[in-house]
């Protein structure tokens, strides 16, 4: 696996990132979620075994289930990887549960 610096953060990440967008079951806004927890565990293990240390998700994927499943799949390895998540999309029914306001960004980071 090849690695690179992540901007000017000082983090070293694999040049390939693992995206967890399909973790979960169901469909939302045209996105299909088809990966259950057992399959997610297998996929994440395979990625780590291949040298991937960079994982990506979002709070809107499967209404937050993707983040939860990725967390479970990475149990015991959290200090060995870098996880990115996206924020801004609607993550709940209240009007403040979307966008890039300070309140929403902090709430999303804490929930993640």
Structure characterization notes:
The chain has helices at residues 37-49, 65-73, 102-111, and strands spanning 3-5, 12-14, 18-19, 26-28, 31-33, 54-58, 82-86. It is of the alpha/beta class and 112 residues long. It has a single domain, classed as NADP-dependent oxidoreductase domain (TIM Barrel, Alpha-Beta Barrel), CATH 3.20.20.100. The strands form 3 sheets. Strands 3-6-7 form a 3-stranded parallel beta sheet, covered by helices on one side. The chain is globular, with a radius of gyration of 15 Å. The two termini are 27 Å apart. The mean pLDDT is 87.
CATH H level: which superfamily?
NADP-dependent oxidoreductase domain
Number of separate strands: 7
Tell me the span between the first and last alpha carbons: 27 Å
Average of per-residue pLDDT values: 87
Number of helical segments?
Answer: 3
Keyphrases for this structure?
TIM Barrel; three-stranded parallel sheet; two-stranded antiparallel sheet; 29% helix; globular
Task: Tell me the layout of helices and strands.
Elements: E1 3-5, E2 12-14, E3 18-19, E4 26-28, E5 31-33, H1 37-49, E6 54-58, H2 65-73, E7 82-86, H3 102-111
Parallel strand pairs: 3-6, 6-7
Antiparallel strand pairs: 1-2, 4-5
Helix pairs in contact: 1-2
């Amino acid at each position: 696996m090849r690695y690179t610096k992540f901007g000017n953060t000082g983090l070293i990440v694999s040049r390939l990132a693992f995206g967890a967008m399909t973790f979960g079951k169901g469909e939302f806004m045209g996105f299909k979620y088809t990966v259950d927890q057992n399959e997610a565990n297998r996929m994440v293990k395979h990625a780590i075994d291949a040298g991937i240390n960079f994982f990506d998700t979002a709070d809107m994927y499967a209404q937050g289930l993707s983040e939860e499943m990725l967390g479970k799949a990475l149990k015991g390895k959290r200090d060995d990887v870098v996880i990115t998540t996206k924020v801004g999309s609607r993550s709940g029914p209240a009007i403040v549960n979307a966008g890039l306001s300070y309140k929403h960004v902090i709430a999303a980071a804490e929930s993640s």
